[in-house]
Amino acid sequence: MSRFLVKRLAGAFVVLVLVSLMSFAIIWLVPGDPTAAFLDTSATPDQVARLRQQLGLDRPIAMQMLDWYARIVQGDLGHSILLNRSVTAAILERLPVTLSLAGLALAFALVMGVLAGIVAAVHHNRWPDQLVMSLALFGLSVPDFWLGIMLILLFAVKLGLFPTGGYVPFSEDPFGWAGTIIMPALTLAIIQVGFVARMTRASMLEILNQDFIRTADAKGLKRAEIMLRHGLPNALIPILTVGGIVAGALLGGAVIIEQVYSIPGVGRLIIGGILSRDYPVIQGGLLFLAVIYLTVNLVVDILYAVADPRVRLE
Amino acid sequence: MSIAIAKPELAPRSPTMIVIVRLFQSRSFLIGAALVLAIALVAVFADVLSPYDPLRNSFRTRLRPPDSTFWFGTDHFGRDILSRVIHGARISLVIGLMTALLTGIAGTMIGAVAGFFPTLDNPIMRLMDALMAFPAIVLAIAVAAVLGASVVNVIIALSIATTPHTARIVRASVLVVREREFIEAARALGASDLRVLCRHVMPNAFGPLIVRLTYVFATAILAEAALSFIGVGPPPPAPSFGSIIAQGRDFITEAPWITIFPGLAIIVSVLGLNLLGDGLRDVLDPRMRT
């Protein structure tokens, strides 16, 4: 196990170094001068020079990179030009909002997806299976933001059951929080349920074809017992990986859905930064999202190795 | 009365024929191909099919709900939504197709090199892992915004976001094919690395790539819409599915049809491509069958 851990951690570290380099390097993609987005043509050379200095663009690229690494190891993601405050502080302030949205969506997606996948596998090739698979395919084909708009139109505008958007912190009003977060979380989840259901079904079908299931059947166990005691626990191990993939997808999805429902989370901060060319926010935001993704997948891989010894002995 | 007569096999079928026959037996493939063909025809013959000019403003017909004159209604400039959706198919499909092509080229080159040359494998794949750590849609939005809004930049941004996964898939199939006996045979005959890779490895690694590119095509249409919604998609006035939805956003309560119809067009296109991909996967890549 320790050998597996060391190998996996070393791999994650290399990727982390590359990820931070790429987050920084996005500013090199800018055609022309990055300061042009903030200053109009009437800007004096002095103003341009000051902004270049503020962005660190006046220094050699190697020094810029060294600075960047020296800062991020201390958790300092830079200083937002437009917000005029620390990017790290701005992200941390909004993090609970995004985490509650993505966390709730993950819970919805996993519970609904695993249940639907089990139903489909148990009724393999019959109508419940076909229904689940059709819905799954549909979910994979709907644009998430469009689905969000449609749900707002139906549940908020027409039926008046939920507010059309905004956010109420849990600490202020738990019911208000639920009202603002359930619809966005469901929107996010619906897009991912199909994927989870497909993977659960595939994993379950593979397990149900194995010899020990036939043995259980032959010794006269009840069908429900075979499914729940012998089938499901084994089928759930690959679902761990699915959880990691879905968590990553939800992170990206949350960025879009926060726009649709006007939720003041990390996603809105990053999109705002991208649209106004606030480079420290773009760089810090991208790095932050990638680090969360890498951490989630590292944890998933380690859990997988704990649950399935074959992985770590490989 | 009918008597079933088994047709004698005249000659052994070629592998290509077997694939084609199996594809035509796949319901997913047939439905998907029909949908994609229909949308493609709409895009190609957009000028003939659309009842009105998709760019013509008309104050007298603004925000009209769907009726017999304007089947999908009109927007705030009085433009016919049906005509805009028909023309939107053109830009959305071009973006999807070009993204699939670019990703196919880049992903094949990167994946083939990583899979075929063991010394380059680790560095290349760690680089791909790093790119995959960013949520694809956020990476695409950032790149498109930084490069500036244009159809070409949207294609570049989406290709950057979809290439790492494609490279990983190509690499995986190259790794499998590389160990087969006919590769050893080709080497024994004195074939160079390049020749072995291009003539023997790649043709046998194409199945999963084709399947992946079908899904990339579908993903690109969805992502283009999201990019337009955020405001970094193809610039107006030319319509894409996404930009029509983005413009309908401010009129969502008074004129929901502006948003609804292009959304349905996206669903039909992406559903078609996903079905096509599922059908191809079942035939070309039986290992991935679910």
TrEMBL record, chain A:
* Gene3D superfamilies reported in the protein's UniProt record: MetI-like
**What is this protein called in UniProt?**
ABC transporter permease
Domain (ABC transmembrane type-1) spans 95-304
PROSITE patterns the record matches: ABC_TM1
Question: Where is it found, in Gene Ontology cellular component terms?
Answer: plasma membrane
Keywords noted in UniProt: Cell membrane, Membrane, Transmembrane, Transmembrane helix, Transport
The listed locations are:
Cell membrane
Q: Where are the transmembrane segments?
A: 9-30, 101-123, 135-157, 177-197, 235-257, 286-307
Q: Which domain of life is it from?
A: Bacteria
Q: Which family does it belong to?
A: Belongs to the binding-protein-dependent transport system permease family.
GO BP annotation list: transmembrane transport
The membrane-topology field of this record reads:
Multi-pass membrane protein
UniProtKB/TrEMBL annotation, chain B:
Is Chloroplast given among the entry's keywords?
A: no
- GO terms under biological process: transmembrane transport
The cross-references to InterPro entries, in alphabetical order and at most eight, read: BP-dependent_transpt_permease (IPR050366), MetI-like (IPR000515), MetI-like_sf (IPR035906), OppC_N (IPR025966)
Q: Which UniProt keywords apply?
A: Cell membrane, Membrane, Transmembrane, Transmembrane helix, Transport
SUPFAM superfamilies named among the record's database cross-references: MetI-like
Tell me which CDD domains the record gives. Answer: TM_PBP2 (cd06261)
Q: Where are the transmembrane segments?
A: 29-52, 91-117, 137-161, 209-232, 257-277
Q: What are the GO cellular component annotations?
A: plasma membrane
**Which intervals hold domain ABC transmembrane type-1?**
89-277
| Pfam families linked to this entry | BPD_transp_1, OppC_N
Principal place of residence: membrane
Q: Does the keyword Transport apply?
A: yes
The subcellular location is: Cell membrane
What membrane topology does the UniProt entry give? Multi-pass membrane protein
Q: Which portions of this protein are annotated as coiled-coil regions?
A: none
Domain of life, per lineage: Bacteria
User: Family, per the entry?
Assistant: Belongs to the binding-protein-dependent transport system permease family.
Q: What is this protein called?
A: ABC transporter permease
